[in-house]
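Hey, quick one: can you model this chain's 3D structure?
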Amino acid sequence: MPTDNWPAHQAYLRGTQRKAKRTVGSLKEAIGYFEQAIELDPKHALAYVGLADSHYLHALYARTGDGELSGNMEAAIARALELNDQSGEAHTSLANLQRLAGDPAAAEKSFKRALELNPNYATAHQWYGSFLASTGRGEEGLAQKRMAQVLSPLSAIISHDVAMTLENLGRDDEALAQWLDVIEMDPAFPNPYEGIGRLYWEALARLDEAVVWNRKSVALDPEQASAPTWLAMIYLDLGDPDRAEFWFRRSLELAPNPYWLNASSEILHYYRGEAAEAVKYGHEVLKMDPGSVYTLAQIRNQDLNAGRHTEARARYERAYPELLQDAEPTIDDSNTNAAVDLALVLAGTGEQKRADMLLDRTLAFLRASREKPDDHEILDVLIYALQDKDDKAIAALKYIIDKGWRAQSWFYLERDPNLDSIRDEPVFQATLKEFKAGMAAQLERVRAMDADGELEPIPDID
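Sure thing. Here's the predicted structure for all 462 residues.
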C-alpha cells in the first residue's frame, strides 16, 4: 500500500477508478478524490501522479485547452518526484508532460526511464505506445500497447487505445473487432462507440452507421465534445449543413474555446459558399494555429481566385518554411498536405520546378510509408491531377471511393482547385453524381431513423 493512511488510500483508489472510466464527469471526480488523498496524506506520491494525469485527461476529454494545465501537471509531477524519484509512475507522467511541451527527445528518455523503474506499469507501455505512434513508429507503438494489454487485460481504455493504433495502421477489420471486444468488456464505456463511428465515417463508407455509433457515445458521455464534433463533420459530408451546425454548436457549448469557435465557423461558412466570412474566421484560426492545413487551403483557394499567388506563398512559408527554404525538403506526416497544396501556388508564381519536386517527394514518401505501396489515398488523387496525369487521378479516385473514403469529401470533390484539371471530365462528373446519390441515400436513412426514434436520444446539457 503506497500510504499508511487508510482514508487517503481509499480516496486514491476511488480517484484511480474514476480516472479509468474516462468520461468528463468521472475525470472531474478523479481530480477531487486525488486532492482529497493528498489533503489526508501530503506525502502520498502516487496521489500526485493521479492528480497530474487526471488534469491532463480532463483537459483532453473536455477540450478545455491548455489554460493552467501545464502548471497543474508540472507542480503535481514535481512533488511526486520529490517524494519518490524512483517512481516509474511519476516518470511516465513527466514523459507525458514533456511530450505536450514539444520535447520528444526528453519524453522518450523519460518513458524509457519509467519502464526501467517499473516494467509492469501498464500505463507507461500504453502512453509510450501512443508517443511512438505519434512519431511515425506505429508498429513499435502497437507492440507497447499490446504489452500494456497483457499487463492489464481488463482495462477498457488500454484495449481502446490498441484499436486506435490498429485503425491508424489501416488494419480496419482488426480495429473494429477490438472495439467490439471493448464494448463487450464494458458496455458503458463511451470511447469505443466513438471509435467505431469514426471508422465507419473515415474508412468504411457508412456515414449513416457513423451517426448511429456517435450518438451512442454522446448518450454515454453527454459532456464530451469530440463525438458532437465528429457528428458535425459527418453531417457536412452527408449534405446537411443545418444539422452539422446543431452539432458544432453543441460541441461549443461543451468546450467554448476560441480556436474551435473560429474553426467550426470557418468550415460552415465555407461549406455554404460564404467565402468572405470563411476567410475572416480562417485568419483567426491561423493566429492560433499557423499550420492548420484545412485553413491554409481554404484561404489559398480564395487567394488563387483573386490572383494573389504571392500572398498565398508567403502564408505557407511562414507555416512550413522547410518546404520553400530547404534545397531538398524532408517530407513526412507533418507536411504532406501542405506540400501538395503549396505546389499549386508555386505553379502560379512561376516556380514549377519546386512544385514538381514537392509533388514527387510527397508521392515517394506516401508509397514508402504504406504497407502496400500500390495503395492510394486522396493525396494521390490530388498529386496526379496536379501532374496532369488525368487517367491516373481518375483511377485513384475510383479506387479510394470503392475502398471506403468519404471523410471531408465535399471539400475535395467540389471545392479543391487541385482537382480542377479533371473536374470537367465526363468520367469525373459521372463518378461525382453516383457518389452524391449514395450520400443522399444515407442521409435519408439517418433522417428516417431519427424520425422513428431509432437513434439514441440527445441528452440535455446541464
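One thing worth noting: The chain has a mean pLDDT of 94.
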